[in-house]
Amino acid sequence: MSFSGKPTTLVEQAITNDGFWPDLGVSEFQKGYRLPAEYLVDLLADGITNAMGEVNRDLAKRKAAWQAAGITNVAAADPQVLQERAFYVATYKRAVYCRAKAYLLQQFATVTRRESAANMAKEAPETHEAFLAFSQQAVRLIQGRGRITAVLL
User: Fold this and answer.
1) pLDDT in tens, the chain (153 residues)
2) What are phi and psi of 14, to 5 degrees?
3) Is 12 in contact with 24 (CB distance < 8 Å)?
4) Domain range list for the chain
5) Which residues fall within 8 angstroms of residue 148, CB to CB, at 6 or more apart?
């Protein structure tokens, strides 16, 4: 069910990743992050694809380090080499899906403007910022960094 009370039709569409990070799915995103039913599938797929590209770029150094250790696919990594592989897969998906939701919530005002569908939680800048923060926290976990980084000047 969407924010607006409209039923959401789940769409089984895979978003192919680079082979190292896990593939993503539109229906997994829809189920876990409750996007408004008004979004077209193409918009959802575009949001996931863009967020995936940004997160992959943010994690390029971590990927290179893991590849140097012999890991070619996070989900299928040898548990002796990457003990928390399931955690990293779930955290990666959280990073991408939260960033996609942050992006897509900004788009909601262009999807519908009916008075009956007005819901500030969908359009508020705080909601967008919160999901970007969730995504960045997940990226930092995978990078092995804490929530805060301080530099001595």
Assistant:
1) 445 566 667 888 999 999 999 999 999 999 898 877 777 888 899 899 989 998 999 999 999 999 999 999 999 999 999 999 999 999 999 999 999 998 888 766 545 555 544 555 555 566 667 777 777 877 887 787 765 666 677
2) -85, 145
3) no
4) 14-143
5) none
Instruction: Please name the amino acid found at residue 14.
Output: A
Evaluate whether 62 touches 143 at the Cβ level (below 8 Å): yes
Pair of tokens at residue 103: 């992006």
Both tokens assigned to 94:
């959280």
Sequence-separated (6 or more) residues with CB below 8 Å from residue 78: 70, 71
- The label of the residue with tokens 């896990």 reads 22
| Residue 15 bridge partners (DSSP) | 24
- Give the C-alpha separation, 89 to 75, whole Å: 6
